[in-house]
Amino acid sequence: MKNKLNFRFGLRTKLLLLSSFLFAIPWFGYQYVWEMEKYLRFGQEQTIIGTARALATSLHERPNLFNNQASFLPDVEKGKDLYGYQLSQAINLDGLPNDWPSFQEKSHYYGVNNQLGQQLSVDKLTNHFSAAVGKYDKYLYFFIQVIDDTVIYRDENARAINKNDHLELSFNDINGNFQRFIVSNKNQGWLAAYRINDLESNERLQFPRPVSFIQGQWRDTEQGYNIELRIPLTKISDRLAFAIHDVDTPLSAATTIIGSADPSSAATLGTILVPSPEIERIVKGMSYTQSRIWVVDQHHRVLAKSGDIKKASGLWQKNINNSDNDGSWYAWTQKYLQPLFQHLLNKPQDDFIDRLYDTQNLTGEHIEAALAGMPKSQWRLTTDKKAVIISAAYPIYISDKVNGAVIVEETTNGILSVRNKALEKLFTSILAIMLLGAFAFFFFASRISNRIRQLRNQAEIAIDEHGRINNEIAESMQVSTANDEIGDLSRSFSTAVNRLSQYNHYLENMSSRLSHELRTPIAIVRTSLENLSLQALPEKSSAYIDRAQSGINRLNNILTNMSEATRLEQMLNQTDKVSFNLFDVLNGCVQGYQQIYPNFTIEYLASDKKVMLAGSPEHIAQLLDKVVTNAVEFSDDNKLFITTALKNKDITIHVSNNGTLLPDTMEERLFDAMVSMRETPQMKEDKTPHLGLGLYIARLICEFHQGHIVASNHHNPQGVTVSITLPLQVK
Predict the structure, then answer these.
(1) Would 611 disulfide with which of 139, 582, 643, 652, CB 3.0-4.6 Å?
(2) Distances, alpha carbon 391 to alpha carbons 183, 589, 617, in Å
(3) What average pLDDT is seen over the chain?
(4) Dihedral (C-alpha) 296, 297, 303, 307: value to the nearest 10 degrees?
(5) Which pLDDT does position 433 carry in this prediction?
(6) Whole-angstrom Cα distance, residue 657 to residue 718?
(7) C-alpha of 216 from chain center
C-alpha cells in the first residue's frame, strides 16, 4: 500500500500535474478571448443592422426625397446619366486636375461610341475627351480633358461662335425650362459662355447672349485643352447634356461632335444625379454612430453619404478601459512587452485603402439583396487586406416598392483593439504565472538535482576507481527518509552498497582463508612424498614422485602469491612513513638488477642528488622489483631503460623496454588484480605461476605513497614505458 502511495504522489505525477496545468492556462485563455471576439463581431453586426433599419425607417414613404434625384427613371446609362461626386474641398478654377481627387478613376471616357451626327471611324477620329462632375457647397463643377490634334480658337473679328472648337452645354433649370449654351473662346483663359436659345419660345437666338453664371478656365495642354467650369445648383436640375465640337479648319463647320447626350433638345438630354442635401442632413444625424453610411437608389447610385470608414471602428475602441495604466508593472510591460505585442498581434490599421466601391455606383451582394427587399449583411477585406469591413444593407420602401437602400459600414478595428487588449492582459497574466511557476519549478528541480547530486557523490566515493568498496564511507552514507522515488533509490543504493561491501570483504579474505586451509593438506602430501622417496622404489616410480613434488611446490607458490597482496595491504596499513632519499634506494636496486640479469643491458645514469620522500624505502624497492621484473619478461632485445624526471613537487621514474605494444584496452586494466596480458618466450621457459598480482602490488605501494603508476606505448622502436610518479616530501 505504501509503495502504491509513493507511486501515486511521486515526482513524476507531480511534474505531470503541474506541467499540464501550466499548459492548460494559456490555451483556455486564448479560447476565451477567441469566443469573446466572435460574440463582439456578432454584436457589432447586429448593431449596424439596427442602424441601417433605423435610418431606412426615417426614409420610408418620402417620395419627394427621391423624385428630384432621377430615381424614377426605369433605367440609367452610365456616361449619359451623370453623377455629381461629393467633393471634399472647393475647386480652384485653373484648368488643372490637381483639385480633382482620383480624376482618372471618377471620370467617364467619351470617344467613337459617343459621336453625335456624322459618324467617323476610329482611325479618322481626331479627338476624344474625359469628363467628371462634382458637387461642392452651392456649385456643380465640371472638368473636361480634351485630346485634340488641332485646337482652333474663334477668330478675333468673327461673329460666329460655332466655327471653331467649342463646348455645347444644355440643361433644364429648376423650373423645367430648357437652356442651351456654347462656350467658345478666342484664346485660353477665362471662359466665354453664351446662351443660344430663347427661354420662352425655345427658338435659337440670332445673336447669342453672354452669360456670367457659367464660370471657369480654358487651358491648352500638350494633347489638346482642358475646360474647368462651375454652375450654381440653383440654375440646374436633373437633366443635362454636353458635347465637344471639333473643328479642324478655321471658320468651318465641326467635323465631329462627341457628347454625353444630344444637347439639341430637352427630350434628348441625359440625367445628372447630385447627392441630395435633404437626405444628407438626415444621414448626418446618424453619423454620430461612428459608422459610414450610404443611401442609394434602385439604380445603385449614391444619393447621400456620411462618415469616414477609417474612423468607423465601432464604439468598442473608445470604451476600452485604461484605468490600469498606472504602476510599475504597466510601465514594465509597455517598455519590454509592447514591442513584442506589436510584432505578434494583428494591430488595427488606420491607413488602409478601400476601393471596392465606386462612389457613383455601389455594388455588392448585400446591396443587391436589399434592393430586392431582403436585408443582408456581409464581411469583406479592404483592397489592401489591412482591415475587415462589415456592411449591412436595408431596403427603403415607397408605396410598397423598394426605392433604394441604406448601407451602413464599420471596420472591426474596435473589436481588434478590445481583443488585443484582452490578449495583452492575458499574456502578461500568463507571463506572471509562468515566472512564478518557473521559479517554483526551478526551486523544485534544484532540490531534486541536489538530492540526486548528493546520491551521485556518495556513489562515487563509496566505490573507488578499481571497483573496491570504501567501507568507512559506505558505513557513513546518509540514507534518505523521503517518501518518494529518490528516497527509495537512496535506500536501495545503500542496501546494495552494504551487500557489495560484505561480498568484497569476503573476496578479500578468501585468499588468506584458502591459503590457511590448504597449507595443512599440502604439508601432509609433501611429508608423504618425502617419506615415500626414502623407500626403495622402482626407477619408474621415482619420476612420478619427482613430478608430484614439483606440483606441490608450485601449488605452494600459488598460495603464497595469492596471500601476498592481502598481507601487503595489511602491512601497509601498519607501516610508519619515514624520510629517505629516493636515489639511494634507486641506485642500490639498479646495481642488484645488473647482477640478477647479467644478460640484460640496463641503461641508467646514477645520481647523487638528494630527493627526499616520505614513506617506506623497503616497499619502494619492492615496487621497483615488480616493475623491472615485468619489463624484463616482456623485453625483446634484452635492453632496459631507467630514467628519472623532476617536475614541480613530483618525481617520475620511467622504466622502458622494447617489445610488443599493449592493447588499447589493456592500458587502463594492467594494474588491476588477477590481470595477466599474454605469454612471452621467457614466461614459457619459466615454470613459476603468474596470477597477474605483480603490477597490482606495485599499484598498492604507489597509492600508499600518494602517487600513481601508468603504462603507455612508445614507438621507434616500439615498446612499453611504465611511469611511476611520487610526491616529494614537503619541507
Answers:
(1) 582
(2) 44, 108, 105
(3) 80
(4) -10
(5) 77
(6) 9
(7) 61
Q: What is the pLDDT of residues 593-644, one digit of tens each?
A: 888 888 898 998 888 888 899 988 888 888 898 889 888 988 889 899 999 9
The one-letter amino acid at 312 = A
User: Is the distance from CB of 388 to CB of 346 less than 8 angstroms?
Assistant: no
Judge contact between 134 and 100, C-beta under 8 A. yes
DSSP H stretches of helix in 221-378 = 277-285, 328-332, 338-344, 365-371
Q: How far is it, in rounded angstroms, from Cα 409 to Cα 638?
A: 107
**Structure-block grid coordinates of residue 458:** 556518495
Residue 310: CB partners within 8 Å, gap ≥ 6? 350, 351, 352, 411
d(CA 418, CA 37): 8
CA distances from 518 to 510, 511, 522, 527, 674 (A): 12, 10, 6, 14, 20
Give every residue of the chain whose pLDDT is below 50, as ranges: 1-9, 71-72, 317, 321, 323, 678, 680-689
Residue in the structure block whose three cell numbers are 462612389: 359
- Please count the residues of the chain: 731
> Could you give the count of Cα atoms lying within 13 Å of 117 in the half-sphere of its Cβ?
14
Q: Rounded CA gap, 152 and 140, in Å? A: 27
Amino acid, single-letter form, for residue 210? P
Distance CA 168, CA 250 (A): 18
CB 729 within 8 A of CB 613: yes
Residue 447 backbone dihedrals phi, psi, to 5 degrees: -65, -45
Contacts of residue 1, Cβ cutoff 8 Å, sequence gap at least 6: none
Grid coordinates of 532: 615415500
The CB density around residue 705, as the number of other CB atoms within 10 Å, is: 20
Q: Phi and psi for 710 in degrees, rounded to 5? A: -140, 155
Distance of alpha carbon 590 from the chain centroid: 73
| Spatial CB neighbours of 203, under 8 Å, sequence gap ≥ 6 | 197
Distance from C-alpha of 603 to C-alpha of 680, rounded to nearest angstrom: 22
Task: Find the helix packing angle between 694-704 and 617-633, rounded to 10°.
Answer: 150
Q: Is the CB of residue 148 less than 8 Å from the CB of residue 127?
A: yes
Distance CA 563, CA 511 (A): 6
d(CA 563, CA 566): 5
Report how far apart the first and last C-alpha atoms of the chain are (Å, whole number): 63
